[in-house]
Amino acid sequence: MPAPPRPILRRAVGRLQFFTVAFGTIIGVGWMVYLGEWLARSGPVGAAIGFGAGTLLIALISICYAEMASMFPVSGGELAYAFEAFGTGTGFITAWVLAFIYTAVAGWEGIAIGVVIQSMFPGFGGPILYTILDTPVRIGTLALGLGLMLFIVWLNIRGVARAARLQDWLTCGFLALSALFIGASFLYGDPGHLEPAILRGEGGSVLPGIIAAFVTAPFFLAGFDVVPQLMEERSPGTSVRSAALMSVLAVLGAGVFYILIILSGSMIVPWRDLLAFDRLPAATAFLEVFSSPLLARVILAAGVIGILTTWNAVVIAASRVLFAMSRARLLPGFLGVVHGRHGTPHGALVFVGILGGLAVILGEGAIAPLVAASSICFGIVFGLVAIGVVRLRIARPGARRPFRVPGGIVTAVAASLAAALFVGLAVHDSLGQGGIPVVWIVIVSCCALGILFWFISTPLRRSLDHAARREMILGEASVHIQTPSPTNGNRRPQ
To answer: What is the CATH number of domain 15-474?
Structure first.
């Protein structure tokens, strides 16, 4: 049957904005609270080496994303990749998990900003409203998180150009503030404070410390994958290839930033002394060593900006995945409604705001489970994309690819193995918590909600055959790539 009219979004995102969205998503606020953990397990140089190696691993995955994004420059990104490589069922699972985790991260940012603001302004939180996950939730931080969630959703409904310009300004402000306190650390710090540079294990090997930092890189560098969600909205003067490569550039730039944070923070004081600061050690160190509340607040302000850049970007990304799924008749129609004036997926944006607001209500105790669940789910999606590159290289070697993965299938296989290693380590860590970890409750909730939507959308899904759904997902890209022959049950009309 012929495909119905395909809803489209307004094209207004430039090449620089692809970078600022991706970089701003990666650089949130985690570096502020995790610096002490890196140092305690690895030492400053060990952490820098391990994180640098991890950055190269994630760069492999981002290169696979760049090839896929150049082949399929449409909203929804991974939905298109998984659909073409594996079929409708896998496409639905991949996209739903991604949308759920993006939304969970949006809630995480709504919680995290309260933590940072309380550090800047003690007493801001106000009285305790309730306690959940053994952590009190205060009225001030809850109101801040929900209020900013509402503002970000409203801003995005008003137009992607507005949201992208906000991302430009926030990212530039973040880089300026970061240059200030990183420069101060290198200028006034002491390289002697880096000793011992690398912590050794019980057997005298430096590998355990380096590996401890290495395995954290995938979580801290996740966020480059928002680029595919905006490919359909790139401005007329922005090429597919240049937009796709911004994901790789963002990973490499963020990796350099993290390494500079680890080294510069360790030079302020002897790094073992830094471990005595339980919360936000870098900011506390500036306050204690330089007697400079100003520099401490500069770091906290950078943390606030980092939260806002990530928050804005994941709201954009989650809404585009849901929009693309609805457009393909895989989710209810209200998620695919485009605003008549602003050309934005306002139905999906409102839905993301509601679910993200529910996560904010969980309070600070939900931060660790949301991080762990995101790590596992992102790793699975990253692996599927890398395997998809291999599958499509074999099935359709002549397809148009404005950007091609250097090294071809070998590089893509290496990226998929790296993603599998990441997932395995994350699962192993979660199983060591005892009892039923909250992280698995989050993942089960994701699966249960996805199953519910799959069944609710059955009549819609059956209203399109495979060819019509393919056209709805891929748009113009469908004419550049030959249609594959059905290979599994997912290829049949559903």
So the answer is: 1.20.1740.10
